[in-house]
Amino acid sequence: MKRICVFAGSNVGACSDYVFHAQELGREIADNGFELVYGGSKVGLMGEVANKELEHGGKVIGVMPTGLFIAEKVHTSLTKLIEVKDMHERKATMSNLADAFIALPGGYGTFEELFEAVSWARLGIHKKPIGIFNIAGYYTPLLEMIDHAIKAGFVQEAHKKLFVAAYDSRSLIRKLKEFESPVFENK
C-alpha cells in the first residue's frame, strides 16, 4: 500500500471531533509513509487532512475538476494537483491512484464515493481496502442501515467484509494494512 484516497466533506461539520480526527488521520497517513490522494480542496475536512499530511512531510495529490476550482477553493500547496474535466474523471483518477480508501464524515458526495468503492469491490473491479472512519459515531446510522439491508435480504452478511470501520485513525490504518480482500461466488 502506497497511497490512500480519502473521501471527506468540503465542510468541517458541526462537531469539533470531526476536525480533530481528520487532522489525526492526516498525521497518521504521513507517519506511516503513505501518500494522500483526495479531492484537492483547501477547505472542510478535505483540507484538514491534506494540511496535516503536508505538515508532517507527506505527499498529497489533489484531483479536481476545473469547474470546482472556485467553489471548493483549490489547495495551492499540494505536492501535485491533477486537473480533470468532470466528477466522473475525478473519481476514476482518484481510484486509479489509490491503493486504499477511507471515508470521513461528509455529505452526499462522500456517501456516493464510499458506496461506489464498496460496489466496485463487490463486483470484483478492485480488491483495495476500504475504511469507514466512524468519528463520533457519524457512520453508525449507515452501518445500521447496512445491517438492515442484510436482514431485508438485499445485502449478504459476507459483504460486510468489503470494508472495515474504526473510531480512531491508528486502528483504521492498522485494519487497512491487515485487510484481506474477500472472495465471493457470483450470483
From TrEMBL:
One of its GO terms (molecular function) is hydrolase activity, hydrolyzing N-glycosyl compounds. One of its GO terms (cellular component) is cytosol. It is an enzyme of class 3 (hydrolase). Keywords: Cytokinin biosynthesis, Hydrolase. One of its GO terms (biological process) is cytokinin biosynthetic process. Gene3D superfamilies: 3.40.50.450. Pfam families: Lysine_decarbox (PF03641). It comes from the Bacteria. Its EC number is 3.2.2.n1. PANTHER family: LOG FAMILY PROTEIN YJL055W. NCBIfam families: Rossman fold protein, TIGR00730 family. Belongs to the LOG family. This is Cytokinin riboside 5'-monophosphate phosphoribohydrolase. It comes from Collibacillus ludicampi. The lineage of its organism: Bacteria, Bacillati, Bacillota, Bacilli, Bacillales.
